[in-house]
Amino acid sequence: MASSASANISRCRLLLLALTLCFASSTVSARRRPVRLRLYMHDVVGGPGQTAVRLVKGPGPENPSMHPGNYFGDTVAVDDLLASGRSFDLVPVGRAQGTYMTGSMRRPVFVVAVTLHLTAAGPYNGSTLVVAGRDDTSRPVRELAVIGGTGALHRTSGHGWSPRCTPCCCWTCTPLCRRPGPSQLLRRRLRPLSLVPECD
Question: Which GO terms describe its biological process (predicted)?
């Protein structure tokens, strides 16, 4: 029991987010090069420095595919450190803030809604990315959606995927082009911009 408790206290889930961002400019001729951001999300679920807190103990049955004590409907709030590497000693580059919930009664599935707030000096300081979706941790490849952003990442969309590994998950997010705003549509005589960029 003590080893289980200490394992829970010291457990830190690291999510490596390799973000590849492609944007479409408001004009056809001006395209930006893809931006690659590699971020590690440090999710500490207990003990000193805890960054994940269970808000709701799910009213549903215990999930048999997960560690004991995980129930259908469990909801967790996170305010996780984003760093440029696996070590906690590295300079923070932002925070991952949001929630995840146990979304299946039988499978190790989470429903995720997290905003990545970038705070490191540079062109993306103050920008955000919103990541959401169904995260089935038992699958060999997991996929989430990048559904938006603010600041320099305004209106970004796309998807992210991760191979299953322990204790670190390598996330590669490939957002598509920014969606056109109303003024861009009017300038283009109501022809929408393509959502699939021509970038490598």
Answer: phenylpropanoid biosynthetic process
DSSP label of 31? B
Considering the entire predicted model, what is its pTM? Answer: 0.69
Distance CA 185, CA 20 (A): 26
Whose CA is closest to 42, among 33, 34, 50, 54?
50
Give the residue carrying structure tokens 């991760």. 162
Q: Could you tell me the two tokens for 98?
A: 């949001």
Which uninterrupted H or E stretch holds 44? strand 35-44
Q: Which domains does the chain have, with CATH numbers?
A: 12-187 (2.40.480.10)
pLDDT digits (tens, 9 = 90+) for 41-64: 788 888 888 899 999 999 999 999
Q: What is the mean pLDDT of residues 149-157?
A: 82
